[in-house]
Amino acid sequence: MNTKQHTIKGSVAVAGVGLHTGQIATMTFVPAEAGHGYKFQRVDLEGMPVVEADVDYVVDTSRGTTLQKGEARVNTVEHVLAALVGLQIDNVMVQLDGPEPPIMDGSSMAFVEALKSVGLEEQNALRNYFEIPKSIYYSDKSKDIDIAAMPADDYRLTVMVDYNSQILGSQHASITHIKQFEKEISTCRTFVFLHELEALYNQGLIRGGDVDNAVVIVDRELSPEQMENLEKIFNKKDIVANQGFLNNVELRYKNEPARHKLLDVIGDLALAGRPLKGQIMAARPGHAANVAFARKLKKMMQESHSNIPHYDPKMPAVKDIKQIQEMLPHRYPFLMVDKIFHLDSKYVAGIKNVSLNEPQFTGHFPGNPVFPGVLMIEALAQTGGILVLSNYEDPENHWTYFLGIDKVKFRQMVTPGDTLILQCELLAPIKRGIAKMKGEAYVGNNLVCEGEMIARIVRKDS
Question: How far apart are CA 206 and CA 233, in angstroms?
Answer without folding.
Answer: 9
